[in-house]
Structure formats: C-alpha cells, structure tokens
Amino acid sequence: MNVQTAALILSAVLHTVWGQNPVLSVRPRTAAVKLGETVSFHCRVTSGSQPVQLEWKRSNNQPLGDNVKLGPDGAVLTIANVRLSNQGGYRCIATNAQGKGTITATLTIRQPPKVRVTPSGPLSVRAGESVSLECSVTGKPRPSISWIKQGSETALVSTTTDATASLQVRVMSAEDAGTFVCRAQSREGTAEGRVELRLEGGFPQASVTETDLTAVEGQSVTMHCHATGSPTPDISWSKLRAPLPWQHRASGGILILNNVGRQDSGQYICNATNALGFSEAYVQLEVDSPPYATTLTDETVARPGEALRLQCLAHGTHPIRFRWTRVGGASMSPGGGDHQRRRAEDRAAESNGQRHVQVCGDQSRGL
Ligand SMILES: *[C@@H]1O[C@H](CO)[C@@H](O)[C@H](O)[C@H]1NC(C)=O
C-alpha cells in the first residue's frame, strides 16, 4: 500500500467519521401528559461532524408557544404547564457543514373524561311527556359514552355522535322517572353526569268537600269533588250499587241532584282518572222525609181538674222531636207535657172551663 492509497483510505475514514450529516435521537419519542403537567424532550446528536447547530420546530410550522423553553445548546425542549394547543409533533433539527438531520417527537395530551348533561336537573315531567337528555363529553383519548338509569347497569338506547349521546325518555308512570346517568369512559378514567326526572303532579287524588250530606225530600243536593294529578284527571260520578238518580246533572267535580227522594240516599262515588290511574272519593247522602204531624182529635172537652190527654202522631224520618205550644203564644202550664215523646199530655188547669187549643208542632233534623 503506497502513501497515496493510504491517504485515500484515511481520507475516506475521516470523511466517514467527520464529514457526515448529523444523526439524531430523541428521548422520549412520544409523551402523553395531562394538562398542566411539564414535559421535556431531549435531542442528542449520535453522529455527524461537529460543529452541529440544534433547533426545534413544530411539525405544523406554528410557533413553539410561550410556555416552551429550550435548554442548554438547544438540546432540551421543555413545555411547562401543558395546554391543548401544545399537542402535536416537535422536530429537532441539527445542522452541520455537511447538511441537516431531523427527528420528531410527539406530544399527546391525556385528558380524563369530562361530562356535561343538559338540561341540568331535576326536571319535572308530566306523565306522557317525552324529554331529550344530552350528554356531551370531552377527553383524550376520546371516551366512550353511555346512558344508564341509576340502579341498573343496562345501557339505554341513545343516539351517539363522537362527543355526544342524546337520550329520549318518555315518562308514563312513576317507574319511568328517576335519575339518568351519562357515563364516559376512557383509559384515563371515568366520569359521570346525572339528571333527575321527576313525575310532576302525577297520580290522581280525589277528595270531596263534604263526606256526609243530609237532605229532605224534594230538595236539591250539590256535591263537590276536587281532584289533583297530572295530567289533569277526568272526574266521573256514580252511585254505589245503583244508577245515578234520573234528575242529576254532573259537570266535572260537581254533581247536582234535583228533587231528591228517599231512594236517592246512598253512597256517591267521585272517580278521578288520568293516565296513571284513578282515585275515588265517597259522599254519603241521606234523604229524609219531612215530618208531618196530626193530632188524633180536633177537639177535646175537659172539665177543670181533669187530666187532658192529647196525642200527636207524626210521620217522617226519625228521630223526630216533638214540641207542644199553645195557639196565641200563651205558656203551657208547668209540669205539663213530655216533649220528647209521641204522646204529650197537658193538664186542663184553667178554671174557667174554656177550651184550650194547642198546636202540636214538630221538628225533625234537617228542617
Ligand atoms: C273509576 O275509574 C276506573 C278507571 O276508569 C275504573 O277502573 C273504576 O272501576 C272506576 N270506579 C268506579 C267506582 O266507577
């Protein structure tokens, strides 16, 4: 081997060692951090002729950002308080006399799922009404979304796009109401949002203003029934074990019976019905006959000192209270008369022997 050859080989070796584009490595190649964390990429020249100049650029050619700092000799790129806009590729570029070398590190941002449910509850829903519940989700990687009803693990059928899941709920009865949970899951974690659906008003509740009514034959009777519930209940009236009296008028919560007779006594039912069920309230009606009284004799003759016996008979609904009075308002002689009995006596105490006319009055409850 002559000197020339040796020189050529040396030159080739020297060229291999010294006259080379920079070759780079970066650590880590990829990083996944949470928002607010700090991350550094280390760029190292593994071979290539010195001197080498290092610089960093973003893959998307955007500026590095004000929270990005370069370390000694530009070898270390540090991102403090990472935010979403920092996500992406970072190119470490090395330049020497022979040319350039680049290597790219990638930053991805890990975001635990977050859930937002609209409308926020609690929601009052009328029976039969349908509501739409929206769940929007953020997070990286993109979480899966599902709706469940609290107390069950079965996923409900919802319409999902990338970041939202909307659920239609139709509340027909109390069991359909409850708390609905939107669950977002990724390997970064699980998040839940919930909304409570309450059945508004709901089950019908009937009540009557008076549960016991008394009337006298021939009178009119009005019954009042009030019903709460949602949807607004319909009210119907009926009579226990009998049809409603012929002369009745029913209008919503009001039932009017005209010209009642004794046969109209009994139990009346107010029935409030809506989609959720029915509720009954009862009115007890008692129809009394008006009492009328007769004395057996129109005229009685009595001598002074004799006992005078007058009898009063009355018809009507019991109990009947009897009262004797004297025509003209004169007082009854003391001790005379047992007002509570059907037979009443008075003593013909007057000495002038004149006839006294007495009226047998009557009273019955309801008059
Ligand atoms: C009240 O209404 C409900 C539903 O329509 C019915 O099932 C029930 O028998 C009714 N009650 C009376 C006493 O009519």
Automatic annotation (TrEMBL):
Region (Disordered): 327-367
CDD domains: Ig
Presence of the UniProt keyword Lyase in the record: no
Signal peptide (UniProt feature, chain positions): 1-19
Origin superkingdom: Eukaryota
UniProt KW keywords: Immunoglobulin domain, Signal
A Pfam family annotated for this UniProt entry: Ig_3
Cited PROSITE patterns: IG_LIKE
Location of the Ig-like domain: 22-108, 113-198, 204-288, 291-328
Entries under InterPro entries matching the protein: Ig-like_dom, Ig-like_dom_sf, Ig-like_fold, Ig_sub, Ig_sub2
Name of the protein described by the UniProt record: Basement membrane-specific heparan sulfate proteoglycan core protein
Species name: Labeo rohita
